[in-house]
Model the fold of this input.
Amino acid sequence: MSRSVTIARRELASFFYSPIAYVAMALFLLLCGILFWDDFQPGQPVAMRTIFEWMVWVLVFVIPVLCMGLLAQEWSTGTFETLMTAPLSESDVVLGKFLGSLLFFVFMLAPTLLYVALLAMYGRPDLGPIFSGYVGILLVGGLFSAVGLFCSSLTRSQVVAAVTAVAVLFLITIVPWWAATRTPLAGFWRKVADQGVFTRYADFAKGIIDAGNVVFFVAVTGVFLFLTVKVVESRRWK
Amino acid sequence: MEVSESQRQRWLKYGANVVVSSILVIALAAVVIYLASLRPRRIDTTAGGLYSLRPQTLSVIRDNSKPVKIVSLHKLPQPPRDATRDEMRAWEESNAEAAQRVQVLRDLLAEYRSKGRNIEVDAIDTLKEPAKEDALIREVEQELGL
Done:
């Protein structure tokens, strides 16, 4: 674990030297700021539900950009072989990179706490749903980072990694939500649509922490991290 | 004398291992998610307990064995056509409370659906979705044999 923490620290530091990470962060905060401003009007509820829901949509595009270089860059520059000469296992590297990207996501999310302060200055917000919304968005960030890392492990090209990750996230987040809202679904298909990331996240945004949803995010994140480890290991025997 | 593995043998050996272990992990995750959904544990963090149903309501929903469809019909004023930004803002402000009430209602219906296995819910805005309202009336008429 301590080896993963070392990798995570190195990865986090490298984010702060990357212009792409700053661009992604600025874009995320700009979009969230515009959406918050649009909602921060007289007569509107003193809540962050709308902004939390929009955040997921924005993250579908922002996190793949943040994560595209995590492994793809190591493959293309040939630094992975050097990294593996250190006493590290593939799992240490994958876990470290995942933690590094998750920590950067937390840094990216931190300025949005200003919205809570603004709401508290002008009204009396219900802090419960705000707390659950942040818990949910952290779980979403973890899952999206795991998907981004997995896609980055598949290719040497960062652009291909980002596009693949956006496609996967689109498929597991937006498509099920779209299908459930546009067409009346029942029975089996309704249950399939309910497994979408956005549907699972919606409960957190409105103020409900469901153990089933927490398990879903942790389990799916774990699956993508496991698959990433397997892809990285396969470089040895291919 | 030791014979080294051919590339094809290596692919078969390690590739099969990766495929089998990946399928097992995915299946395990699916089972864990399914088991977690069987006994839902939900914490309602809202101050007013907006999404907490009374125990009596819960027992009615859980004991229900027949399929039930709960439909809410409401009229939410539609935004004015060709409105300026300021007019739109004023309209939103005057209708914010009604929109909030409809949102709470939709959320509550979603809670009913999540708690009961045989419950289907829908919320129809009769001004925005007249076709859906007509379809519902036809469905009810058919059901009652009118």
In short: Residues 2-235 of chain A form one domain. The beta strands of chain A are 208-210. Residues 127-154 of chain A form the longest helix (28 residues). Chain A has a mean pLDDT of 89.
